[in-house]
Amino acid sequence: MKIAVWHNLPHGGGRRALQDHIAGLASRGHTVKIWQPSDVAPLNLRKGIAAELTLVDHHSTYRSDAPSPRGLMRLVAYQQTIATLNRNAAVTASMIHRSGCDVLFANTCRFMGSPFIGRHVEIPSLLYLQEPCRVHYEAMPENPWAAPGRLTRAGNSAHALARRMENAVKVYAYRRKVREEIENARSYHRILVNSCYSRESILRAYGIEASVCYLGVDTELFHMQGSPNRLHMILTVGSVTRLKRIDAVLDALALVRHPRPRYVIVASTYDEDYCRELVRNASRHGIEFELRRNVPDDELVSLLCRAKAVVYAPRLEPFGYGPLEANACATPAIGIDEGGLRETIVNGETGVLVENEPRHIADAIEMLCQDREARERLGARGREYVMERWTLQAANERLAAHLDQIVVRFPAGGR
Asked: pLDDT tens digits, residue range 21-65?
């Protein structure tokens, strides 16, 4: 089977999942052809995995790291971005049709959640969606749908009225983006998600049923390295952004009794302003804090094997590789008892699920740092758990089965 893969994923868990999926499909004898915008770094495929890559010229006014436009410029920028993404998708779809591919395997759009490419292809299509565009559907620190504050007598000024007009433009721009995102999602024959929590998120956001297709961990890469000497250290792996709530771990460490463990973060992407804020916070509380960026895989595995625990504290995380990769290295995980972490951490068996309170996180850190017997028991069970339920082989078999099903069910690409 010839499989067309589309993505524009940044560095992070979604990109790693796609690389594993491509390796699994190629190892089963499928021909994999990849299409991506020219401004996205090529995937880092494993040695020996052959996949043809096509770069599509991508000219968009939207940059995720650029300041948000204001006033009418926000609406103009949104309109231009949507038009550009849609146009690029149409061009890519025509290339895919000429290539003779049998099925489209699309992935989360970094700008839209569900990408436009599904609207334009005439072959069976499957979307692996990590999550919808969260800011539009979940309670963020600042809810974008909330009306501006009431005008008071003192506030009846030109400035206050201008802010109301800007808010109205922002809401209209968001509504347009949400409409396009939902229509995009409805264009696919099947949507796959990484957890039951994500399936519910898609249902709440789009009103569409999705199928859970759990990801897997590379247990050949992530494994125990003999009987490593555990350092007095805890570890977090992932992007350093406000959604990942590294500051919550620092707040918890400030409550841990001395000697506090060293806190190491391994990051692939990061917010520079947030990083500087974390360094100041750690210094204020006397916490030994180290940020390591883009470390090679062998160094990451070594850190996982030597840490006493991995701490993972983002709010409403859809899935999260960190706890499972830690378990594969026989290291227990601490996570917030919500979202997809309830499906990857078995409380009391492979790690500890805690309430979103600094004191509870601190208690879990102290317990795993001080109680060697509990740490080794949870780590050993964690490794068994990954081998039983979370291997790459099982994950790739689940994906291949979904692709086979939609090709049989929609041979002409009919909706």
From this structure: 999 999 999 999 999 999 899 999 988 898 999 999 865 544 544
Q: Are residues 310 and 270 in the same domain?
A: yes
Query: What pTM did the predictor assign?
Result: 0.90
- Does residue 399 lie within any of the structural domains? yes
Q: Indicate whether 101 and 248 sit together in one domain.
A: no
**Residue 208 CB contacts under 8 Å (≥ 6 apart), including other chains:** 185, 186, 191, 202
Span 338-380, pLDDT tens digits: 999 999 999 999 999 999 999 999 999 999 999 999 999 999 9
Number of domains in the chain: 2
Domain holding 246, by residue range, is 233-390
- For residues 184 and 328, membership in a common domain is answered with no
- Position 340, amino acid: G
Same domain (yes/no): 301, 397: no
Tell me, yes or no, whether 308 lies in a domain: yes
Domain assignment of residue 38, yes or no: yes
What number of other Cβ atoms are within 10 A of residue 48's Cβ?
8
Long-range contacts (CB closer than 8 Å, 24 or more residues apart) made by 246-251: 246/274, 246/278, 246/313, 247/277, 247/278, 247/281, 248/313, 248/356, 248/358, 248/361, 249/311, 249/313, 249/361, 250/278, 250/281, 250/282, 250/285, 250/287, 250/289, 251/281, 251/358
